[in-house]
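[agent] plan:
  1. take the single chain provided in the ticket
  2. run structure prediction with default settings
  3. attach structure tokens to the ticket
  4. add a short note for the reviewer (M.T.)
[agent] executing step 1
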Amino acid sequence: MMAEENIFNRFVLTVREVQGARILELGTRRSNVNRPTISRHLFPDAAEYIGTDFQDGVDVDVVADAHSLSGSFAPEYFDAIISLSTFEHLKYPFLAAHEILKCLKIGGRLFVQTHQTFQLHAYPSDYFRFSIEALAAMFPEQMGFRTEVALHEFPAEIHSVLGVTKPAFLNSCISGIKFAATPEQFVYDLPGTMAAEDSGLRATLARKFAALRTRLGR
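[agent] step 2 finished; step 3 output follows
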């Protein structure tokens, strides 16, 4: 789906309606000291707005790694979390997605924008490119999150040295709401795996099987 309107603007207007909102933005350290990348000015009435990055620098209020975000903030603390052009720089994005959900309140909102096609830009590392399907896979319903909008924006073209041109997009975006508590372990939506509600049964069966093997001396 291609953007027909600016979904980030819609997200901003929705979050502005939350009285006393606590907002977290990831990856706010300036790579160019003359160009701010934090969105604090869009939320003048927020009770708390925290810019974070794994490196200290301009526009970083709290130094925290997205891969261990829940170690820096209280569980379900934020009404909204924003990530703009950051996920491509995360070494383990599924782990970071899980940590983000742990820190988001039930009823809280999330906006993630990253790149579907873009030049390499290491700040300090550049790991991934994402489709909207990839973003939805990291924030699935079995993790208590409901995607409201997922889209590609800014049409682009890929030109190869082989003379092949293909359509693409610069950005992938996802916006949605956390509707339930975050499971302790990430629940992958894979064929043949048990759903989140069956994870306890799976663990029990594994323990019983291990005990049986011990009794049998195997």
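[agent] step 4 note for reviewer: The longest helix spans residues 199-215.
[agent] ticket updated
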